[in-house]
Fold:
Amino acid sequence: MRSEPVVQVRGLVKRYGTRTAVDGLDLEVGAGTVTAVLGPNGAGKTTTVETCEGYRRPDAGTVRVLGLDPVADAAKLRPRIGVMLQSGGVYTGARAGEMLRHMAKLHAHPLGVDALIERLGLGDCGRTTYRRLSGGQQQRLALAMAVVGRPELVFLDEPTAGLDPQARRSTWDLLRELRADGVSAVLTTHFMDEAEQLADDVVIIDAGRAIAQGSPDELCRGGAENTLRFTGRPGLDVVSLLKALPVDTLAVELTPGTYRITGKIDPQLLATVTSWCAQHGVMPEGIAVERRTLEDVFLELTGKDLRS
Structure:
C-alpha cells in the first residue's frame, strides 16, 4: 500500500473573476482511507474536489493526485481514478446496463458487473434509459460507474443523495468494502451521520480554507464540553451540587426533575455526581453522557448549517 498521501493539496487558490472560491487551501488524503469534505454551500469544497479531479486548473498552489498533476497528467491519471458526479457525465438515451458494461470494458480488471448491479439494487432497470430512471436509480448507477473499474482512488459527490435508507446502507457497505480492498475515497456529503459512519478523516472547509481536519472522534473530542444528564426529584440544590464539581462546570435544572451538567465529563466527575446524590438521598435515574456530535463541531466552527 502507498505510504505517501494519495491526494496532496498545497496553497490552492481558485478564483472566478473577482470572487475567490478557494483561498490558500491545504489538504491531504491518506492511502486506503475515506476522507469526507464538509462545508456550507459556497465554501469551496466542490471547486477543490473538481480541481483534484482535473476539471479545473488552479490559479495558484499545487495539486497532486496519486503523485500526478491532475491536469497535465490527465491521460495517465484517468484509468486510475473513479469520479461520481452529482449530475451529468452520462448518455441520457443509453440503457443503464449498457452504460455500466461499457464502462467496465474500458478497464483491465473491472468488478463483476452483474454482482455490482445486484448489490446496488439496479437489477430491475438494466434496460431502462438513463433519462427514465428515478433520481435514486440515477445516483446508484453513477456510483456503480465510478467504482466498476476498480480505481485506486474514487471521488464521490453526494453519493447517497436521494436514496432511501436501505440503499444508503448498501452504499455505505460497498464503500467500506472498497476501503478494505485498499481503495481511497474522497466524498462530499450533506449528511453528518454519513461522514461519522464512513470517514477516517474529515476536512471542514469554510470561505475557501480548510478550518479543521481530523477523525470524527478527534474533532468531536477536541477541546469540547460534553454533557451529563440525569433525572431526580424536582428542586435539587443545584448550587450545592456545583460546589462539589470542578471549576468551569455548569449545572442547571432544565425542567422540574431534569438536570444537565456541562463540562469535562470524565469518570471522576461522574463519581462526584453520584456521590453527591447519595449524600442528599437522591436516586438519579437515566444518567447519560452525551458526546458532542460532528454537527455540533461544524456549527461551532462555521456558524452555519451544512445546507445553508
